[in-house]
Amino acid sequence: EANDIIWDRKLNALPIVSQDGRLVSFVFRKDYDSHKGNPLELLDGQKRYVVGAGINTRDYAERVPALVDAGVDVLVIDSSEGYSEWQARTLKWIRERYGDTVKVGAGNVVDGEGFRFLADAGADFVKIGIGGGSICITRETKGIGRGQATAVIDVAAERDRYFEETGVYVPICADGGIVQDYHITLALAMGADFCMLGRYFSRFDESPTSKILIGGSYMKEYWGEGSARARNWQRYDMGGAAKLSFEEGVDSYVPYAGALADGMATTLAKIRSTMCNCGALTIPELRDKAKLTLVSSVSIVEGGAHDVLLKDSAGAVGRN
Predict the structure, then answer these.
(1) Number of helices followed by number of strands (H, E) in the chain
(2) I want to staple 175 with a disulfide (CB 3.0 to 4.6 A). Which of 6, 61, 102, 196 is the partner?
(3) DSSP assignments along 59-74, one per residue
(4) C-alpha angle with apex 139: 201 to 212, nearest 5 degrees?
(5) Model confidence over 159-208: pLDDT tens digits?
(6) Are 75 and 64 in contact (CB under 8 A)?
(7) Which CATH superfamily is domain 43-196+281-296 in?
């Protein structure tokens, strides 16, 4: 109704007051235009952005109530290893106090056994991936983890079995291994319901890091959890000897990619185009119709430009 008044009377803003003359809210034409211009934005029932927050298995009793009071929509237990009693206890504590009013994700896991453990514990979704992130060195330092494609395929099969047995569908998130846009499509084809995109988002203007000129190219800072930089934060300050004694992540740079709106539009166009090639109009249909095959290193080289001199790198060759 407020939007109709703004539109009909050509107003830029409309204050709304209660019967006793108190200001209740302010409605702006700019917000109206923004919602119309971005029909795919993820909003709740009050037209607010859906917001998620990461928690751990140590101080969740203090963090969760504060986050819920602040209006959080989704909680995620953030850990490199989710198949643990600690996560089960955290999920149980949240369920006992908030029931199903708060959505909680858990993880990370890399096999069906870990998925079923967290699903039985009450997770609303489960994250997959250990050591596959571009800034994660967990496999290198601890020997823990699994190839991301294998992990996604294995967990997706268990998710489907779990659904057949219980009637409960627990979505899975592929976390790690996303470098090229088509990796997102591969993850979806392998069974993932959605993807975690760390490196992807870190490259854009909207990421909260500095844009730095390095070697003639603009870069953005990007660092992993468990890195020397991250463990200086409060979340790793456990006092005394209870501290991280080695790194599981690196501090790095990624190529700057401009505005998120432009990059995301291109990514979505590529995903839709690949789905079209597979004859799929929906993600579930993509899982059924996509044909996955192992490829050799030679095939990967063959898949890109080869045996030609690219014009961008040719410079002034052949010109007077």
Answers:
(1) 13, 11
(2) 196
(3) SHHHHHHHHHHTT--E
(4) 35
(5) 999 999 999 999 999 999 999 999 999 999 999 999 999 999 999 999 99
(6) yes
(7) Aldolase class I (3.20.20.70)
The catalytic position among 136, 199, 203, 231 is 136
- Check if the beta carbon of residue 199 is closer than 8 Å to that of residue 221: no
235 is catalytic: yes
pTM: 0.86
136 flagged as catalytic: yes
Domain ranges of the chain: 1-39, 43-196+281-296
pLDDT digits 0-9 by tens, 248-303:
778 889 999 999 989 999 999 999 999 999 999 999 999 999 999 989 999 989 99
Q: Which of 63, 229, 235, 278 is catalytic?
A: 235
| Burial degree of 55 (CB within 10 A; 0-12, 13-18, 19+) | buried
- Residues present in the chain in total: 320
Burial of 305 per CB tally in 10 Å (0-12, 13-18, 19+):
exposed
Place of tokens 């047995």: 165
Burial level of 139, CB count in 10 A (0-12/13-18/19+)?
Answer: middle
- Asked if the peptide bond before residue 277 counts as cis, ω within 30 degrees of 0, the response is no
SS3 56: coil
